[in-house]
Amino acid sequence: MQIDQNPTSSELDNKLERLRDLLRKFDLDALALRQIGNFAWATCGGDSHVDIASSTGVAALLITRSARFLVTNNIESARLMEEQGLARQGWDLQVSPWFAGEAGLLKLTRGLKLGADLVLPEALDLSHEIAGIRCQLLPEERNRFRALGKECAQGMYAAAHSITPGMTEYEIAGQLAQAVESRGVQVIVNLIATDERVFSYRHPLPTAKKLRNYAMLVLCGRKWGLICSLTRLVHFGAVPDEVQRKAEAVARVDAEMIAATRPGKTIGEVFTRGLAAYASVGYADEWMLHHQGGLAGYAPREVVANAESKEPVLVGQAFAWNPSITGVKSEDTLLVGEQTNEIITEMDDWLAVDVPIGDQLIKRPAILVR
Predict the structure, then answer these.
(1) CA quadruple 131, 136, 139, 143: dihedral positive or negative?
(2) pLDDT (tens digit, 9 = 90+) per residue, 147-196?
(3) Beta strands per DSSP E along 160-262
(4) What is the CATH number of the domain that holds 364?
(5) Does the N-terminal or the C-terminal CB of the chain have fewer CB atoms within 10 Å?
(6) Looking at the structure, do residues 147 and 282 belong to the same domain, yes or no?
């Protein structure tokens, strides 16, 4: 996936300074990054993945107090430097033969006090600390996230309107993948349930079961390392009263959590407000059946919220809440703004449930009836 939103030098400099702050804080000489999300963050959107099943990429970044290196093999070097733009960013390329394994990185780091996000001899694991700083999105990253949200929403909209009764869940998953991947977004989560399976499983891997009336489509799409999450429900024919009541109830829970996701609150406080909302709509225990989402960014959830989450909500962060009541779910990705929240996966022409909260009217997606 070629980067088509060029980073600014200030974005790159800001990220390098944050990483060097870690070097100073932990009295280290260098920091090695190989996690796909960290690579994308530090290179302002670079893509080091080949195998979608792996969380580590085919290249590492090595940042010292005065230099920075791209360490990879002869298979990947040209693509990363040319198509992924790392030559323009000024990374010092260090290439090893494909059969040399980690020899190049080990040679560069020999004798150094090293931090890393991967297992290396005597390196200090700083994965948690790096995840903490990458969640603080810069303006350039927010713009990429908005573009990604639009692409994911358009793909989901197209897929939801293309499915028909008689399709298998595999076929529905294929429709969703085609609609999203054709827009340049990588599908990393593609969950499909139909009919009774919507009521049975929170994480429904698609099967050969055929759609009769009701479908749930769940997507996590990745581009520039950033990940958007959203869910939509589709029903053929009149929606049963019980399902409609649950859909309106879960929309209320989601809206309450979105409204609470504001600077000055902690993630735990937002979670607790969600629990109160579940109780207020008559489904007090449903939250126990699935996590409620949380802080998003370069992972589907950088922090999965619970009542003890002390992390503050900050302007510029991304969140994806996903409350569910058996048979229904509500999920979108939002950015926290100075004055209000921006739902970046919203679809203007998708029927919405209007939820009044104080002086706000928060729109949540209704079940698409076809």
Answers:
(1) positive
(2) 999 999 999 999 999 999 999 999 999 999 999 999 999 999 999 999 99
(3) 186-194, 214-223, 226-235
(4) 3.90.230.10
(5) C
(6) yes
